[in-house]
Structures are given as C-alpha cells and as structure tokens.
C-alpha cells in the first residue's frame, strides 16, 4: 500500500452467506460482497473501491462453486476518497 494513506485497516470479511446461492453464482457474488463490505466500512461509494487481483485470484482459487468462507483484506483509504484493497 502507499504511504500517503489516511486510514489503513485489515478486515476479515465473512462470505458464508454465499453458500445459500446456486453454485454457478457463488464466486461472482463473493466479489460483489467484498466490494459492498468495503464500501460500507470505509464509507465511500462502490465505484471508488479498487480491488487488487490477488483478492480475485483467492476467491476463484477453487473454482466458481467453492469460494472461501471468509477472506482477510488490507484496505487503505486515501485523501481523494479512493479505497485500495489487497489480500492481507
């Protein structure tokens, strides 16, 4: 992360609720849940959340049908309101 971050936080994001969805939607919905979680907790709009490719690779690691139950993410909020998140 960059050194000029205003707020930096590590979050453990629960993804258990996606197990209730059909198998073919789980990984896509997991990415949406991660973005929505960071939007809510960092108090920004969803279009200002930038997810690093490592998060995407971790969610899709075991395929579309078996995403992880939780994921740890390091998020940094910058002065211009942009949030960058990477795998912790």
Automatic annotation (TrEMBL):
Gene Ontology CC: cytosolic large ribosomal subunit
The keyword Ribosomal protein is annotated on this UniProt entry: yes
SUPFAM superfamilies noted in UniProt: Ribosomal protein L31e (SSF54575)
Pfam families: Ribosomal_L31e
Tagged with keyword tRNA processing: no
Domain of life of the native organism: Archaea
GO biological-process terms attached to the record: cytoplasmic translation
Keyword terms: Ribonucleoprotein, Ribosomal protein
InterPro entries, per the entry: Ribosomal_eL31, Ribosomal_eL31_dom_sf
Family designation: Belongs to the eukaryotic ribosomal protein eL31 family.
Record-given protein name: Large ribosomal subunit protein eL31
Species this protein is from: Methanomethylovorans hollandica (strain DSM 15978 / NBRC 107637 / DMS1)
Lineage: Archaea, Methanobacteriati, Methanobacteriota, Stenosarchaea group, Methanomicrobia
């Amino acid at each position: 992360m960059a050194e000029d971050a205003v707020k930096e936080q590590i979050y453990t994001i629960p993804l258990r609720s996606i197990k209730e969805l059909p198998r073919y939607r789980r990984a896509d919905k997991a990415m949406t849940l991660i973005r929505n979680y960071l939007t809510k907790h960092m108090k920004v709009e969803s279009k200002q959340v930038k997810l690093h490719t490592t998060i995407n690779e971790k969610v899709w690691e075991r395929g579309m049908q078996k995403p992880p139950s939780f994921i740890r993410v390091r998020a940094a909020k910058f002065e211009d309101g942009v949030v960058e998140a990477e795998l912790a």
